[in-house]
Amino acid sequence: MSSPQQFVNYALGGWELAVCSSLLLQGVLLGQTARYLANGFHRTDPTIMRVWVAGLLVLSLGRNLFGIQLMYEQDTAHYLNFPAALGEWLSARFDASFLISGVLVYYVQMFFCWRLWTLCRQIWLPSAFALLFSAGLVCSILAVPLAHMKQPVRWAAAYLSVYFVSDFLLCGSMMFFLLSALPSAACALALLASSQKNPDYVAGNSALAITVVLTQLLPMSYAYSPCGR
């Protein structure tokens, strides 16, 4: 059985790094949004693009506020109370954080599918990617209720695998147009590898901290990719 100190080092400590790193990328995203407005792109872009930028900003801000609230519970409300902090870690709110991350990633991926359609004008190609990404979203939804059950199928691993494969296929289809999506796919690959190194999330394993950090960085890297262009 792992000690409370091991849990703090690898799980709760990883969560601290995850939220702070996500906030750093949120600041970059806010700067990109300010540049988008200052340069007047919102006046010339189609309505769907302006709505998408606003939706991305709202979703990413809401997700980071949710992470700050969880970090407050961990650091202030349950300061040095390891059993209570462990209860927060295993609570439904952390499951909700995983689901929110999946929704944000899916939201950005739908933008890439729309962008692919505007370039190729062949509906079958972006539709195939949209179907793959939808399958990944379903896996992320199923991963929440099944996360604490002994199931032979690891839905979280399936969710990450689908996104990893789909992203690299999408990058191959739009090599010269969506090169900025490559860091997100690499982040998904690293997250998949770390989650499989520690599939049962055993405390006291450095892979747990890596998994926690990358889980938070993955959707923010997706949000950063399209806005940086």
TrEMBL record:
Q: Which keywords accompany this UniProt record?
A: Membrane, Transmembrane, Transmembrane helix
Keyword flag Ribosomal protein: no
Q: Which residues cross the membrane?
A: 12-30, 51-72, 96-117, 129-148, 160-193, 205-224
Instruction: Determine the domain of life of the protein's source.
Output: Eukaryota
Protein's name in the database: Uncharacterized protein
Instruction: State the species of origin.
Output: Mycena citricolor
In the record, what lineage is assigned to the organism producing the protein?
A: Eukaryota, Fungi, Dikarya, Basidiomycota, Agaricomycotina
